[in-house]
Design brief:
- With about 350 residues, the protein is α/β, with parallel strands linked by helices.
- The protein has 16 helices and seven strands.
- α6 (about 155-185) packs antiparallel against α12 (about 255-290), α9 (about 215-220) packs across α11 and α13 packs across α14.
- The longest helix is centred in the middle third of the chain and has 34 residues, at about 155-185.
- It holds the Pfam family DEDD_Tnp_IS110.
Length: about 350
């Protein structure tokens, strides 16, 4: 059934392209999307420009203005069919796209790369403006150079947003780790070099109880060794004594203990909160993907864990939308390209990187 639906969608796209290229009775409405204001260009499928610029806001009033203008040109030019097109810029285009689909209008998208390349064929200058981009999109639509957007269902959209939140939290954690390593290296450089992982359990015990070399010396060898043994029994006595010796001969900066302690406590609290939030996000992700057949298949692959599997599903959605592995490779931007010109052939090929970055990482 899914295969039949996929083929019918592909055939529908081909029929739509053929209709636009051959018919004379379709009104093309190309929209250059902006965050606050959009610009529309009205053109007939025969190539007649009806209006180069029509500005409307990204609100329901602006959308209604667009619909009224569309009906006006349909009546005036006797064009029974309409086709709306836009470049998928950020998240702004989704508002208009959803409104058009709710109104039962046909809506398509054009590739940002195609828009950039086609701009040079229309105008040799490097000038760029909203009206020119709207006309550029209309020209691509008239040539049939467009595609139907894959607008995923609610569940996949939720999953994608959760995975984005997760990766942002990972980036914040990396930043906090670097800041913590920096302050430790400032007050106790020997300790920073001793632990490869700045968030190691024994490191956390030291930072929470006695982060400065002077505090470790004041505690004395036996109390310091006992503290580490009590809080982390797996940490050897020999290593604890080595850290004590490092504290006794440390060249760390002194005189800024109050501010350094404040920053350490702040960073440790931030890292703790981040971990809690990451666990919550992971729980939400698991609620979405658990029970999915594609998730079970992905995590069965060696080296693919829950986070990676969830990210892949969030990016590609329903895998039956793709007819071959080559399409997935292209979506990820992992397809290869070479360079040939006359008798000059460069044998070394590179990946295009024109695709979803998350799928490549």
């Amino acid at each position: 059934m899914q295969e039949k639906e996929r083929r019918s969608a592909k055939q529908a796209l081909q029929d739509l392209k053929m209709e636009i290229r051959s018919s004379q009775d379709t009104l093309i409405i190309a929209v250059d999307i902006g965050k606050i204001r959009n610009c529309a260009c009205f053109m007939s499928s025969s190539g007649k420009v009806l209006r180069r610029r029509f500005f409307f806001t990204n609100t329901i009033d602006g959308f209604n203005q667009l619909m009224r203008q569309t009906k006006f040109y349909q009546r005036r030019e006797k064009l029974p069919h309409t086709l709306f097109g836009m470049e998928p810029s950020g998240y702004y285009w989704i508002h208009l796209y959803e409104h058009l689909t709710r109104c039962g209008k046909r809506a398509i998208t054009v590739s940002p790369l195609a828009v950039n390349r086609n701009r040079e064929t229309i105008n040799v200058s490097r000038d760029k403006s909203d009206p020119k981009d709207a006309y550029n999109i209309a020209d691509l639509m008239r040539q049939g150079k467009f595609y139907l957007p894959i607008y995923r269902d609610k569940e996949i959209r939720e999953l994608k947003r959760f995975t984005k939140i997760y990766y942002r939290l990972v980036a914040q954690r990396s930043s906090l780790r670097c800041r913590l390593r920096g302050i430790v290296g400032y007050i106790f450089p020997e300790l920073e070099h001793y632990f490869t992982d700045i968030l190691a359990k024994s490191m956390m015990i030291i930072l929470e109880n006695c982060p400065f070399p002077s505090e470790i010396r004041k505690m004395g060898r036996s109390r310091f060794v006992f503290l580490l043994a009590k809080e982390n029994p797996r940490f050897s006595r020999k290593r604890a004594e080595e850290i004590y010796e490092l504290a006794c001969s440390s060249v760390g900066i002194t005189g800024e203990e109050k501010s350094a302690l404040f920053e350490i406590k702040f960073l440790l609290k931030e890292l703790e909160d981040l971990k809690s939030n990451m666990d919550k996000v992971n729980a939400e992700v698991q609620n979405i993907v658990s029970g999915r057949d594609d998730y079970s298949l992905l995590i069965s692959i060696p080296g693919v864990g829950p986070v990676t599997a969830s990210s892949i599903i969030a990016e590609i959605g329903d895998i039956t939308n793709f007819s071959s592995g080559k399409q997935l490779i292209k979506l990820a931007g992992l397809d290869l390209y070479g360079s040939e010109s006359g008798i000059s052939i460069h044998s070394l090929r590179h990946i295009t990187k024109r695709g979803r970055r998350t799928l490549r990482t």
